[in-house]
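Handout, section 3.2

Students often ask what a structure token actually looks like in practice. Rather than define it abstractly, here is a full record for Phosphoenolpyruvate carboxykinase [GTP]. The first block is the sequence as you would receive it.
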Amino acid sequence: MAIAETFAPHTPAAMPLRSFGTAPAYDTPAMADLVAWVDEIAALTQPAAIHWVGGSRAENDALLRTLVDEGKLIKLNPEWRPGSYLARSHPSDVARTESRTFIASEKEEDAGPTNNWEDPAEARAQIGELFEGSMRGRTMYVVPFSMGPVGGALSHIGVQVTDSAYAVASIGIMTRVGDAVTRQIAEGAPWVRTVHSVGAPLAPGQTDVEWPCNDNKYIVHFPETLEVYSFGSGYGGNAILAKKCFALRIASVIARDEGWLAEHMLLIRVVSPEGKAYHVAGAFPSACGKTNLAMLRPTIPGWSVETLGDDIAWIRPGEDGRLRAINPEAGFFGVAPGTGESTNVTAVETLWGNTIFTNVALRPDGDVWWEGLTDEAPAELIDWEGNAWTPDSGRPAAHPNSRFTVPAAQCPQIADDWESPDGVPLDVILFGGRRATNVPLVVEATDWTHGVFLGATISSERTAAAEGTLGELRRDPFAMLPFCGYNMGDYFAHWLKVGRSLRFDRAPRVFQVNWFRRGADGRFLWPGFGDNSRVIDWIIRRIEGKVTAIESPIGRLPRIEDLNLEGADVTQADLEELFDVDPQAWQREADSTEEFFATFGAKLPPALNAELASLRYRLQKA
């Protein structure tokens, strides 16, 4: 591939015309350090070739063509889905490998009870064994990337080394990739080191498989040295290390040390009928409606929502005493099943083209389909494993955790300033989960500390995105349980510390929401989706001081008559059940919370135990 690229001169050294895949020739000590690190990884993994990714369109097109030629991607019908592709993973490689994900902090207590800890020396020995020769017969790609706009004050940069071209194409959608990042490194900017191998070396003459991976999967983070190593999986966040590994686990450590927050949160701008803008960040565990809320189309006339981010928010205190947030990602990596025109028409419209789909079904006309995309399934499909499928097959056509990777810029609701390096000022923080009982539709925290208590006590049903039993209830504080890179007791304390740095009248107001409460007959009590805007409407009127609230043992609840329910399909009886607070059920909830808090021992901030004691007192009085 003799594709040449031209680069503009830039300090510290002008870039010459260079060949496709060769290393940039910056003559600086920092660049020499980067090259030495790449050479060190190459010496360990022994690839057949090294390709430095420049980030050009021609380079990406060539990469995708090669993947199609190798049978690793299926090019979709350009008439229906231009510039789009389908990948099918190995059935053993379909989700995050949380049970094989480790934090190798110097002290075990710094990883905490919610993380798998590994001794750093043992982890490095394991890396040496697993990665030795792991890239034989493959190309090693060097991918410089930026989380957030390149050069932005809230942004951070890294480099991923990988032997997966599929991962390279995905990183190119999810981050800002290319020589502008390499220039920053050459100029001395700090960067995070990430290394990935599918763990499937090729012998001379050996034919590759469609989805190379290894049964032995292993991901380890070194918080003190800001490194990530991932082995054996080519799927999702196991391979796109900029996402959960860097943007949450490593970034949460950087954020702790620098005084900001790296959070598993959507970010939206809500615009009122009067044209006033409000900014909302929301933490929801996977498959709890986060993407739907990020692309909300309100059912209340006059309101609109602009998307800023669907999954990760980096939030920093400003000099004005407010929190400002950016979405550090450049794309959406969403769960396909359940995304349809009746649930999230914005997402469907975003996926018009330039999308990599993974583990969805293929239609006879060369387009894709998954459960929930349309009300009726097509008569014939090829399922996610490549087998013929009909509606009578008795199995899903798409894997429950099948995905789409698409540029955020294609979202029809994307805010014009979504890439502003300065971010947006936060007015509201939401915490949500998937709870059939107990948790009301919406409850307002009484203050920041109570809001941290609400975030720390989120629990949700287990989803297809994580290993485990579907439907099982699991604690997921701040929706960060799988993603916090250090002891969550210290993480709770960090949230409290950040709150103390804010002006009390400028701190975001905190609310907990639950779209998933069920009645005694098992029905969902709330219609959800676009009608969730009715809850946002009430929240905005609360922070504007236009409506009062009812004090309850668990927080402040709306008066039902203050909710804008015109045109909503919800009965008075359902509304009363949606806001019912059963003191006995909540006492059991408090007992469960006490057991959970006990796992953090002395690391749990006393303020959270005080909040729990106050909750018990209020419940007894009720």
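Discussion prompt for tutorial groups: The chain has 16 helices and 34 strands. How would you have guessed this from the sequence alone?
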